[in-house]
Every structure is written in C-alpha cells, then in structure tokens.
Amino acid sequence: MHGSKAIAVFGEALVDDFITEQVVGGAPFNMARHLAAFGEPTLMITRVGQDKNGALVRAEFERYGMPQTGLQIDPTEATGRVVVERGADGHRFIILADQAYDYIETEPALAALRAVDPGVLYFGTLAQRNPASRGTLRAMLAASPAKRFLDLNVRDGQVVERSVFESLHQADIVKVNEEELQALFDWYTHDRPGTADATSPALHTACSRLLRNFSLEGLIVTLGPRGAIHFGADGVMTASLASHAPARVVDTVGAGDAFSAVYLHGRAQGWPLALTLARANEFAGAICGISGAVPQSMEFYQPWRARWQTGAATPAAS
C-alpha cells in the first residue's frame, strides 16, 4: 500500500491455555498481527505443531491476512503452550519446554527471508532458549542486511544473561521496560539510576553507556502509563511522557507488543520520532482497555488507521 519493505518477525507463536479457553499469543506473533492490521507487509517466521492449537495459530494468520510462507509445521513437537493458572494473588504462567517454536528450521526460514528482503528483522529472546531456533536466528541475522530490532523479554528460568548479551550485540535498536532496563544496568554498567524521573541526567548517562557498549543506534524504554523515552546514539533523548491509560484497565497483556508494532509501523512510514512514540503509547494504552493482547474484531484498527493516514489526532484510549 505504501511501498515500504517488509518487516520480518522471528519467534514464538503459542497458545495461552487458561484450561477453560485457549488464546493465541506469543510476543512476536502479537506484534506481527498488529503490523499486518496496519497494512505493513509482514513475514512471521515461527513453527507450530500438527495439533488443535496449531490450527488456532493458523486461523490467526488467515484472520490477519498474513502470508504463511514463514510458518513451519512440526510433525512431532506440540504447538507452543503456556499454562495459565488463576489464583487469589493473580495469574501464574508456566512456560512449557520443548515446543515447536524451539525447533524453527534454518533453511526454510532463510528461504522465506530471501523472498521478501525485509527492511527490519524483529526478534526477542524466548525463542532463543533452544540451540535449534537460536542457530536459525543467527543464520538469518548473518544473511540479511535488515535493521535489527530486539524486543527484550527477560523471563525467569527461560532466558539466560548470555543470550541477552549476544542479542544486544546483534541488535541495532533495543526496546526494554523498566524492569528489563534495571537488569541491563545490573549486568553491564556500574550505574543503577531509577526511572522515576525519566529525564534525569543520571538515567541519560547510564543509557548512553549501554548504547556505546553494544554499538546500538537506539534504546527505547517503555514506562507503562507514564509513556516512553528514546535514547539515541547521537546523544539525543526523545520523550513522550503523556499518560494514555484507558478509563478502565482490563489487563496489560500485550501492551509492549502493541507499542513495538506502532513504533515499527511509524518508522516504516517515516513519521517523526516524537510522533511515533506518542502514537505507540496511545495504542498500547488502548490495548490495555481490552481483554487480551489483540482485539477480537478487526474493526478495532480502523479508526487508528484512518486518523494516522489523514494526519488527524489519534483517538484517545478508552
């Protein structure tokens, strides 16, 4: 629709199993679905099983009009599943091992990547826990000149520091939340500034050190309802700190994925950085006002696309 190059997304597509219902998720797949809904040519590279949950994932490819050239079918391993247990203290998530997305094969992934010659390659850390998928990602990164966007997702017991270290060295642009940023400070700097004052010189200095240490072009720190801030390798700090929390927060599942999608969409469209951050924050806030990481109806996206295409104000989160 606008001639921008495709965005390739590597990682897990899975099902959150609430026992009474199964909801398709996975941070990369959440992000990819939003991108497709915004009209961005999107290649999702993942792997599912020949099972009922795999059929649910394939149905989402179809609902969002996404090509399945990067979707691999595993004949033996099950589609990724996260068991969600509800309790008095909230939800407990059990991320199962040895799932189909742990075994993404290299040659089919490279073939799909070559076919679209993407402008951006998005990846996270969960799908790197197994050497098979990790090796495929490394081959993709080596084969493509695309800009590399790392959406860090540090999960206890799933992601080791070494994987984070290697991923940071592979990335051009990194997005983290406040907790992940503190983990990076603990691992890689002597500075541990807080994020209560997002524009503090101490925070700017510490983030600039991370940018230099890993030769990054940009570091994005999301602050939940307090907005987001971008630190550039040129020393420029760009902040969007307006609150866009909905009138009623249903859940915050997928808010970070929604932010990443709008950031990459805005980048592809050539929006100014400050405007991109503002729109990403607004859309992430709107996702907090619905149940789940993506809307049940594609009509949810229409007012956003219409206003962004005309340059009008973005609809308020509600």
UniProtKB/TrEMBL annotation:
<dbReference type="InterPro" id="IPR011611">
    <property type="entry name" value="PfkB_dom"/>
</dbReference>
<protein>
    <submittedName>
        <fullName>Fructokinase</fullName>
    </submittedName>
</protein>
<keyword id="KW-0418">Kinase</keyword>
<dbReference type="Pfam" id="PF00294">
    <property type="entry name" value="PfkB"/>
</dbReference>
<dbReference type="InterPro" id="IPR029056">
    <property type="entry name" value="Ribokinase-like"/>
</dbReference>
<keyword id="KW-0808">Transferase</keyword>
<dbReference type="GO" id="GO:0016301">
    <property type="term" value="F:kinase activity"/>
</dbReference>
<dbReference type="InterPro" id="IPR050306">
    <property type="entry name" value="PfkB_Carbo_kinase"/>
</dbReference>
<comment type="similarity">
    <text>Belongs to the carbohydrate kinase PfkB family.</text>
</comment>
<dbReference type="InterPro" id="IPR002173">
    <property type="entry name" value="Carboh/pur_kinase_PfkB_CS"/>
</dbReference>
<feature type="domain" description="Carbohydrate kinase PfkB">
    <location>
        <begin position="20"/>
        <end position="294"/>
    </location>
</feature>
